Amino acid sequence: MDLSLAEGRIPVLDIGPFLRGEPGAREELAGHVARSCEDTGFLVFAGHGISQSLIDGCFGAAAEFFALPEEQKMELKIGELNIGFLPTGAQVIRTSKIAEVKKPNLNESFYISHDRAPDDPDILAGKPFIAPNKWPPALPAFRTATMAYFGAMQGLAHSMLPVFAEALDLAPDYFNRDFRDPTCTLRLIRYQPQPEGEVDRFGFAPHIDTNFTTYLAQSALPGLEVRTREGEWLKPPAIPGTFVVNTAEMLGRYSNDRFAPTPHRVVNGNKEMRYAIPFFYGPDNDAVIECVPSCVSEANPARYEKLLYLDHRLKLNRTNFAHRQAAPAGA
């Protein structure tokens, strides 16, 4: 794919030459990424090297899980941490800055994090946000399919850090220090069809992602919409086998809003269930997020104070999730 022909508001970029280490590919890709991140903050990655069988396997696992009887899903309901099943009605996006959201998202979800054994040292130490995953006993292949996808996506997201650093005029390894043990979440989602006549109800209400970058495999049915700076809603190019990638709040903070995150929403106007498997990639819990040197000057001072990423995650989850409202400090 010719990168020079891919400069729409949500461009389609072939990242294959960069991943293969071709000379000059990182610099060229970073230029395209920078232009888009300063505009919509959304891109479509082709040539990523992730096997379609892994992607299909994860979508298949999601469909199998959500087809389980409700009582079996509820046995895996999330508790103090966002791991496991989140039923419909349990998430209201109160942090949205472009809409007053009062109704819960019209979807059910299943959260998967790093796969840790019960005797993992970080679990025994009681570190926040760290716990074993929950697995459905009725689906023995579920864990294998989802964790294979999880591992592949973590590798892809990490491999793109030098591109985002280059796009911000930084050394390619600049972000490595904050991503030694990245916070990663795979969220399986099933969206119900939109109720007719409910204009203020969404599969996912307008929001920004709060991590660093998000990678979304193309769904079989449309639904994702991106809000431009002018206030219009666009649909990303729906190209099978590609990933829709968007910047999130932490990259916005690092870049002093040069790469400000873009609001987006999901409207399932289809007459059937829609599935999605977004992968969220964020810094270490103990990373301190601060504006990078290339995005700060006397004329453009830092807009944000230093932020411990763990504190950010704790505040966010207590605001948007009903099960976290009364969570104890440090949970």
Give the strand content: 15-25%
Number of domains: 1
Rounded average pLDDT: 91
> What is the SS-derived class?
alpha+beta
CATH superfamily: B-lactam Antibiotic, Isopenicillin N Synthase, Chain
Fraction of residues in H or I helices: 25-40%
Q: Which descriptor suits the 3D outline?
A: globular
Rg from alpha-carbon coordinates: 19 Å
Furnish the topology, listing elements before pairings.
Blueprint: E1 12-14, H1 16-19, H2 25-37, E2 42-46, H3 52-66, H4 70-74, E3 84-86, E4 107-112, H5 121-124, H6 142-159, H7 161-167, E5 183-191, E6 204-207, E7 213-217, E8 224-227, E9 233-234, E10 243-247, H8 249-254, E11 264-266, E12 274-276, E13 279-282, E14 288-289, E15 307-308, H9 309-320
Parallel strand pairs: 1-2
Antiparallel strand pairs: 2-10, 3-4, 4-5, 5-12, 5-13, 6-11, 7-10, 7-13, 8-9, 8-11, 14-15
Helix pairs in contact: 2-7, 3-6
